[in-house]
Design goal:
Layout: H1 2-12, H2 14-17, H3 21-44, H4 60-76, H5 78-90, H6 96-131, H7 135-162, H8 164-172, H9 179-194, H10 196-210, H11 216-240, H12 244-266, H13 276-300, H14 312-333
């Protein structure tokens, strides 16, 4: 939030800053990092007192920390690494990097909520339950995290598949971002969208392993996933063009998510709860209703979502909000979702 607020303040003065805007935006990023650090320092002072000491001793705990840190960095950012690799390959085609970038910006919003946020929230409690050998609480929390991840990622995935062009046009289709740019970015977004649930599941399943101090397994599977992504991209790039990048990313991500699921089940780290199938069936049913509503409004307001309409953003936001509240409302009615679920206090 701090970063976004500072960037928005800079953009409000865009006309006055002219060509210097890009410099001030970069200054804002640096300043935001410093403010974020101070902000966190204020709130963690009751748990941790900053003590700057230049004497550095390498003991067993430090070695253990870094042995787990490096693999976790790689495995936590595997989706971003796949995107980076794809961007490098796509740079051989004119404008392809831009198409991928704009598509990436859209689906990353949901990934941050459905995968990263949930994984971050459950890690402390999950680690505590595992350490105390509370298998019942561990299983309950893991299943609820998986349900919530699918509850958030599936509707976003379906909406982006159905309305990829309208959403891309509403967000970016202005000025020099012409119809061709919208069309190509929408194509990339369309194929990225199929992998959105997988991107979220990777974060969730990796958290199951991180809570058990296992960072090497996610690292190993992430490395295989990246190699698979590179292989598919290089094999078909000359024939298909930039569109193979989101396809390869989606395929490699589903591969990564599935093998992580198989691993945690085989190791007895995770078991599906008795009502998991019932809950997922309810979530899928809610998604079917929601996507039909979304599709209906997309077609109903088709003339308001055309490229030349400068107010199309307002209409797409309205459609998304109507669909979202319909989805939540219907899910509550059939008990696919409870408000208490978002607390994840298990």
């Amino acid at each position: 939030m701090i970063l976004n607020i500072l960037l928005i303040i800079c953009l409000l003065y865009a006309e006055n800053l002219n060509d210097y805007l890009v410099y001030y935006l970069s200054y804002a990023v640096t300043l935001a990092g410093l403010l974020q650090f101070i902000f966190l320092l204020i709130f963690v002072k009751k748990y941790f007192v900053l003590n700057i000491n230049f004497r550095f001793k390498i003991n067993d705990k430090v070695k253990n920390f870094f042995s787990k840190l490096l693999p976790s960095i790689f495995s936590s950012g595997v989706t971003q690494i796949n995107i980076l690799v794809g961007t490098i390959i796509a740079s051989f085609q004119a404008s392809a990097v831009s198409y991928l970038y704009y598509a990436d910006r859209i689906y990353q919003i949901n990934l941050a909520i459905a995968g990263i946020a949930i994984g971050t929230v459950i890690l402390p409690n999950l680690s505590r339950h595992i350490k105390s050998n509370n298998s019942l609480k561990t299983r309950e929390l893991q299943n609820k995290a998986l349900e919530l991840s699918l509850f958030l990622s599936l509707p976003a995935s379906l909406a982006l598949i159905v309305g990829s062009e309208q959403i891309t046009s509403a967000l970016f289709g202005y000025g020099s971002f012409d119809k061709l740019s919208v069309s190509n970015s929408a194509k990339a977004l369309f194929f990225f969208s199929f992998g959105l649930p997988a991107f979220s599941l990777i974060k969730i399943f990796s958290t199951f392993l991180f809570a058990r101090n296992d960072t090497k397994t996610p690292f190993k599977y992430s490395l295989i996933s990246v190699i698979l992504n590179i292989t598919i991209s290089l094999m078909f790039f000359s024939k298909v063009g930039f569109i193979i990048i989101p396809i390869a990313t989606t395929i490699s991500s589903w591969f990564n998510g599935i093998i992580l699921l198989v691993f945690v089940i085989n190791k007895n780290y995770f078991k599906f709860s008795s009502n998991f199938i019932i809950q997922i069936s309810k979530i899928i049913f809610s998604n079917i209703i929601a996507i039909l509503i979304f599709y209906f409004f997309i077609n109903l307001l088709e003339s308001s979502l055309v490229y030349v309409n400068n107010y199309k953003f307002i209409f797409i936001v309205l459609i998304v909000l109507l669909t979202f509240f319909s989805y939540i409302g219907f899910s509550i009615i059939i008990k696919a979702f409870k408000i208490s679920d978002i607390n994840l206090k298990y």
